[in-house]
Amino acid sequence: MDKFTKITVAFFVAFFLFSFSNAEKENLKFSSKSTSKPFFAEDTLTWKLLGEIKYSKKTVKDYGEVEFPVVNAKLKTIGKKTVVISGFIIPIDSKNYAISKNVFAACFFCGKSGPETLAGIKFKGSLPKLNTDQYVTLKGTFRYNETDIEDWIYHIEDAVIVKK
137: closest CA among 47, 72, 73? Predict the structure, then answer.
């Protein structure tokens, strides 16, 4: 190999290796009120944990036999606490969004996933303009529901977008 080819190959290898740095985490910084130091917003609530759910059958007057969610113990401990979660935006109507583990084409409504792969979102402040399948990271208060069959199993309330 001539000298020019070796330098070109070395340049491309170096470029490739540096492309896997942690620089992407810089976009996730946001400041905490309790400290002047910024910290990284990494997901504290994962879709894997949300998927660890069981169901129990109960009879409901208007619906017959219905499977009610039984939320796992770990999720119960983070109920009403601040969490960070990433996922795809699914518009429900002109005023409501959900965050999903999957894109719209493979979401719960299409029958390709379970209801545990979605969480309803209530934003803090005004409703942001978001696009279907837009990948976001949210910070908000986690709430679960085991009793109302006409509501989401999971909710993120007072949500703010920390990364678009």
Answer: 47
- Average pLDDT of the chain is 82
Cα four-point dihedral sign 122, 126, 131, 134 = negative
Which pLDDT does position 1 carry in this prediction? 59
Q: How far is residue 19's CA from residue 49's CA, in Å, rounded to a whole number? A: 30
Among 102, 92, 101, 156, residue whose Cα is nearest residue 130: 92
Tokens of 123: 């934003």
| HEC sequence for 7-45 | HHHHHHHHHHHHCCCHHHHHHHEEECCCCCCEEECCCCC
Amino acid at 46: T
Whole-structure pTM over 0.90, yes or no?
no
User: Residue 100: left (phi > 0), alpha (psi -120 to 50), or beta?
Assistant: beta
Alpha-carbon gap, residue 152 to 45, rounded angstroms: 16
CA torsion 75-108-138-89 (nearest 10°) is 180
Residues sharing a CB contact under 8 Å with residue 132, sequence separation 6 or more, in sequence order: 89, 90, 91, 104
